[in-house]
Structure formats: structure tokens, C-alpha cells
């Protein structure tokens, strides 16, 4: 059962990663949800590896589409921020924290950390309190977009995953490539699979 759930989680990670490549407002992406989702549903090592590889591959796609550099000094802050969100998602899974709180707290932490990184490595900001404040003020529109995107992607990722998990047995019917659910009890019985509803 765990292997089947991991395959479903992988499918959601792929969908969320592709969400970074579709045209969107700056920072209106599924990345925060992707990190928290992987942290909540996979073991830590697999969550970190899978998420960072997926994000890196989408960074390559973004580089190809928009001409962005794939990696730079800022990557130390963004990728370490992604890892922190995955670890926070993993930590929060047994704490009964509302998912909205987990997502918002992760986003605020990521925003603060990456803005600190921008201030530190970007020569346009003076290296004092005023420069740091200016950097954070410049980042506020990105935070607004990120929080709006977080709420939309939270529904797409977490709510739909909870629904699929609740209404299906995570059994893949390879003849039609669909997830079988309660209405398919007869199909499962024919395959010799006994279930309890």
C-alpha cells in the first residue's frame, strides 16, 4: 500500500513541478506546496531528493524557456529554503497543525530567508539595516503573489490528494490506467483482491 501511495505522491510532485513551467504571475507557483506535500507524505530523504531533483529539472526548463541562469549564488538560499520547507512539512505531519498554517509559515520563512540572501549577495542593496529593509520592501509584491498562489495550489494539491486518498483504494487498473474506487468493488473481487469498506 505504501508503494502505491508513493507512486501517487510522485504523480502529484510531477504535476506540481509542471505548474512552475506554465505561464504565471511572478512567484504564483506550487513550489511551497510541493515542498510541504513531499515532506508530509514521503520519508525525509526521499522527499528532499525527489523535490530538489524535480525543482532543478523545472529550473532547467525555465532556463530554456525564458533564458534564466540555471544556478547562481542565490541558489544556496533558494535550495536551502526548499529543504527547510520539506523538513518543516515532515515535522508538522504528526503535530496536527492546520495545513494552511504550515503553508503560510513555510512561505513567510522562505521569503525572509531568500530576501536575506538577495540582500547579502546583491550589490544594489547597502549592507546595513536600511539596505535590508529596502530589499524586503522590494520583495513584498512577490510575497503577495506567492501567498495567493499557495492558497490556489493548496486546493489543487492537498485537497484533491485527500479526496483521492479517501475515495480510492490506490489500486491501479492497468488495462484502463485509472485508480479504482468503491464503485469498482466487483473488479477488485474478480482480481482476487478483498477489501473492507
Query: pLDDT under 50 segments (min length 5)?
Result: 170-178, 193-197
Radius of gyration using CA atoms only: 19 Å
Q: Largest beta sheet, briefly?
A: 2 strands, antiparallel
Order of helices and strands: HHHHHHEEH
Structural class: mainly alpha
Fraction of helical residues:
55-70%
Number of domains: 1
Strand share of the residues? under 5%
**Mean residue pLDDT:** 82
Strand order of the biggest β-sheet: 1-2
What is the molecular shape? globular
> Helical region count?
7
Distance between the termini: 16 Å
How many strands appear in the DSSP assignment? 2
How would you describe this structure to a colleague?
With 197 residues, the chain is mainly α. The chain has one domain (2-170). 70% of the residues lie in helices and 3% in strands. It contains seven helices and two strands; from the N terminus they run ααααααββα. It has helices spanning 2-18, 31-41, 44-66, 75-92, 99-121, 129-167, 185-190; strands at 171-173, 178-180. A two-stranded antiparallel ribbon has the order 1-2. It is globular and about 55 Å long. The two termini are 16 Å apart. Mean pLDDT is 82; it is low at 170-178 and 193-197.
Amino acid at each position: 500500500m505504501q508503494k502505491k501511495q508513493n507512486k501517487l505522491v510522485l504523480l502529484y510532485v510531477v504535476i506540481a513541478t509542471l505548474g512552475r513551467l506554465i505561464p504565471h504571475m511572478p512567484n504564483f507557483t506550487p513550489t511551497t506546496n510541493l515542498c510541504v506535500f513531499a515532506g508530509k507524505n514521503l520519508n525525509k530523504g526521499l522527499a528532499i531528493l525527489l523535490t530538489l531533483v524535480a525543482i532543478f529539472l523545472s529550473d532547467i526548463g525555465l532556463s530554456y524557456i525564458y533564458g534564466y541562469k540555471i544556478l547562481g549564488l542565490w541558489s544556496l538560499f533558494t535550495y536551502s529554503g526548499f529543504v527547510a520547507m520539506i523538513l518543516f512539512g515532515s515535522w508538522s505531519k504528526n503535530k496536527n497543525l492546520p495545513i494552511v498554517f504550515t503553508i503560510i509559515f513555510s512561505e513567510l520563512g522562505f521569503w525572509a530567508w531568500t530576501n536575506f540572501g538577495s540582500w547579502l549577495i546583491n550589490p544594489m542593496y547597502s549592507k546595513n539595516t536600511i539596505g535590508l529593509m529596502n530589499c524586503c520592501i522590494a520583495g513584498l509584491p512577490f510575497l503577495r503573489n506567492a501567498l495567493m498562489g499557495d492558497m490556489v495550489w493548496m486546493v489543487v494539491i492537498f485537497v484533491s490528494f485527500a479526496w483521492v486518498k479517501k475515495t480510492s483504494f490506490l489500486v491501479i487498473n492497468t488495462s484502463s490506467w485509472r485508480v479504482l474506487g468503491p464503485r469498482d468493488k466487483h473488479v477488485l473481487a474478480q482480481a482476487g483482491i478483498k477489501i473492507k469498506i
